[in-house]
Each structure stands twice: as C-alpha cells, then as structure tokens.
C-alpha cells in the first residue's frame, strides 16, 4: 500500500492482488464538484475512484471491482438482509449451536429461558435482541465462539484486567458491534462512498470471511479500550465510537492488506 499526499492530506492506495485491476487517469482540469482531494468519489457502476492533487494536476485512481469481489459483496449484503426469525428451524439450530459453543456440556432448557441472561442477553428470549443487526449478528457470535474460543470465553467471563462493577452485557454488545461495523464499512449504501470500504473490498476478495474476522478483532479492541478507560455501562457508546476509530486507523495502514495484518488481530487467541 502506498501513500500519496494531497495538500497536507494522505490518501492510502492499497497494493492490489493480481485478480484486481487499477487504472490511473490524469485530469488536468477538474471542477470543484469532481475533485475530493483525499475523500473517496465513486463514478459509475463497479468503479472505485479516489482523487488527489499532485503538482497542480488532479488525478484519479480507479479500481475496477472483480467478479469475485462483486459476488462476495452480494453474499455479504444478503446476509445483512436476513432478519432473525424464531420460527425458522435453521435459525433455532444456530441459536442452539451458539449456546453449545458458549457453554460446552451445559444443557439448554429452551430457546426461551433465564439461562440466556448468563450470555449477556437482555431477557429470557434472545431473539428480541437481534432486531438491530439481524441474523448475521448471531452468525458473528457463533464464528467468534468457534474460531477464537479462548478470546471468546475470556471476554464472556470478563477475565481480563480490572473490571468495572457495571459491565457491558456480552451478547448484546456483540450485536452492537456487528451494527457498528456495517455502518463503518457503509455496507447499506448501493455504491461505495468511503475509502475504508474500498480497502475492505480488497480484503474480502482475499478471504470470504473477512467481515467475520473483522468482527472478532473489533470485539477484542472494544474490550481493550473498555479496560483502558475503566468504563462503565453508561459509557458503552463512547467506547464503541473509539473502537470504530481504531479499526479505521488500522485498516488504512500501509502494510495492512488482510484482516490478519491488522495490529489488533494479534489480541485474538
């Protein structure tokens, strides 16, 4: 990833894989509306363009999305559109799988039970807490529990650091993290509008589970910042904002080409 300076601003240009294409097109005269100087601009379907100024000439770097990137983004958007439906058997099974991964060997007495409060849901029925982010937030929690079980259990049981008396509820925090990442990556927009999203698209082409991996990183970053701030439940939104800022900073680092390259990835175990 290279960095181009534009009147004091920096635009990070990621190094692309052989499957992606990149075109550099100079524009000697560009209208103010056509120039963003470091702010991403999107032109046409499937084109990612970032403008910057060099020696009085405006230039635009355009990244053509590959069929693989477009397909994986469609799949991710489809996942985002699925609401949790307690009447669907596959959704019930996913919820049971989350319980089994969270509390191995502990029998679940029902999909509506006081037991769910142990995981950090607000009430006896966890399905009511999925409204903000949908079924994908359950998939994220399940991915975290299965892929990084040590980190998952540590956060669940609040084992790290000096904890506050009024802690964040683990599972509900997870749903909020999913929603935060979707906003950060601007995934609800029909066309990309942020440079962070263009970087993520490249990561998604490298690994179809990039979103789920980023979720796991976000969770451990959030908990780390929670401890550093000695935060309480009332400060959760502030911690979530600072978590987002940290993630954006790391995603735009020169050497970060995959989720696994993010400095905070190494907090996972």
Automatic annotation (TrEMBL):
It comes from Tripterygium wilfordii (Thunder God vine). Residues 90-251 form the ELMO domain. This is ELMO/CED-12 family protein isoform 2. InterPro entries: ELMO_dom (IPR006816), ELMO_domain-containing (IPR050868). PANTHER family: ELMO_CED-12 FAMILY PROTEIN, ENGULFMENT AND CELL MOTILITY.
């Amino acid at each position: 990833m290279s960095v181009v300076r534009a009147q004091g601003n920096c635009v990070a240009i990621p190094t692309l894989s052989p499957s992606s294409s990149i075109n550099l097109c100079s524009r000697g005269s560009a209208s103010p509306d056509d120039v963003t100087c470091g702010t991403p601009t999107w032109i046409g379907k499937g084109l990612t363009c970032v403008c910057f100024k060099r020696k009085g000439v405006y230039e635009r770097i355009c990244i053509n999305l590959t069929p693989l990137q477009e397909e994986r983004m469609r799949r991710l958007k489809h996942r985002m559109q699925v609401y949790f439906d307690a009447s669907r058997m596959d959704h019930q099974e996913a919820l049971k799988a989350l319980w089994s991964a969270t509390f191995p060997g502990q029998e679940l007495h029902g999909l509506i039970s006081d037991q769910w409060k142990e995981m950090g849901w607000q009430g006896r029925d966890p399905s009511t807490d999925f409204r903000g982010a949908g079924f994908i937030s359950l998939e994220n929690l399940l991915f975290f529990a299965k892929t990084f079980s040590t980190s998952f259990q540590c956060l669940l049981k609040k084992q790290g650091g000096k904890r506050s008396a009024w802690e964040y509820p683990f599972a509900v925090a997870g749903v909020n993290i999913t929603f935060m990442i979707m906003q950060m990556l601007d995934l609800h927009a029909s066309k990309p509008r942020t440079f962070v999203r263009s970087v993520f698209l490249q990561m998604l082409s490298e690994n179809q589970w990039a979103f789920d991996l980023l979720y796991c990183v976000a969770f451990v970053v959030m908990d780390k910042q929670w401890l550093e701030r000695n935060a309480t439940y009332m400060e959760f939104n502030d911690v979530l904002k600072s978590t987002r800022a940290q993630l954006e900073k790391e995603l735009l680092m020169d050497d970060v080409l995959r989720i696994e390259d993010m400095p905070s990835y190494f907090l996972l175990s």
